[in-house]
Amino acid sequence: MPESVAILEVTGLRKSFGTLEVLRGIDLTVRAQELVFVIGPSGSGKSTLLRCCNRLEEPNEGSIRVDGVELLDPKTDINAMRQRIGMVFQSFNLYPHMTVLANVTLALRKALGKGREEARAIGEAALARVDLADKSSAYPAQLSGGQQQRVAIARAMALEPKIMLFDEPTSSLDPELVGSVLAVMRELRQDGMTMVVVSHEMRFARDAADRVVFMDAGQIVEQGPPDRIFGAPQHARTQSFLADFAA
Ligand SMILES: Nc1ncnc2c1ncn2[C@@H]1O[C@H](COP(=O)(O)OP(=O)(O)OP(=O)(O)O)[C@@H](O)[C@H]1O
Ligand SMILES: [Mg+2]
Questions:
Q1: Are 128 and 160 a contacting pair, CB within 8 Å?
Q2: Does 91 reside within a domain?
Q3: Residue nearest to atom 12 of ligand 1 (CA)
Q4: Ligand 2 centroid, distance to 57 Cα (angstroms)
C-alpha cells in the first residue's frame, strides 16, 4: 500500500506573543487517517499550535498546508478552509438559545448554504454518529457535559472536515463522562478521520494513537509510536514529564 497522503503539513512554524516566542520552529506532518496525540507541559505551546492550524492565531513564520492548500497564503480563502478543519475545544461553545440540531446545522446552512431539509438530514446523521439522535430538539443546558461535547463533535463532523483538531476535549468533564467522548473519538478514528488530539488522557493515547508527539517550550522534542514514547522515551525532558505525570 502506498504511504497515505499528508493532510496537515506544518513546516518551520514560529509564533510569538510580544517578546515571548511560543512556537520555535515546529515541523509536523499528519497523514490521512492518522491519529496524532500531542502531549507536553502547560505552556509548551500545544493550544497555540492547534490554533495556528486554522489561523485562530496568526503565525509569524513558516508554512501550514491542509489538504495541499497553504493556509498562510494571503490568497487562500481562510473561511472556506476552516470548514475543512474541524475544531473541538475544552469548552463546547454551543449556542444556549438554540436546540442541539440547530447548533449542528448552523454552519451547514450559513456557511455551506444547505437548505433546511438537507441540513436537517446531515445534522441528524451526525447526531446519530455521536449517539445523540434522541436529543436533537433539546437545549444544551438540558444535556450533560459529555453530551454537550459530543454535540460539538457532531457539529464539526457535519461539515465533513479533512481533519479534526481536538484541544483537551475531555478536561472540563466529570470523570464518569469522559468515556463517552473518548468512545466517539475512537469511532471517528475507526471511520478513518484524520485527527490531532491534545489531551492528558494517556491511556487513550496508548491504545488509540498512531503517534505521540511530545512538545516542550515551543518545540517538538520527540515523537513516535505510543509504545515507544510511553515505554522508552529517549529524551530527558520526555522522561521527566512522563514521570511527573505518573506521580
Ligand atoms: N493570546 C496570548 N497572548 C499572550 N500570550 C499567550 C497567548 N496565548 C498563549 N500565550 C502564551 O503562550 C504560551 C503557550 O500557551 P499554550 O496555550 O499554547 O500552551 P499549552 O501547551 O496549550 O498549555 P496548557 O497545557 O496549559 O493548555 C504560554 O506561555 C501562554 O501564556
Ligand atoms: Mg492548551
A1: no
A2: no
A3: 22
A4: 13
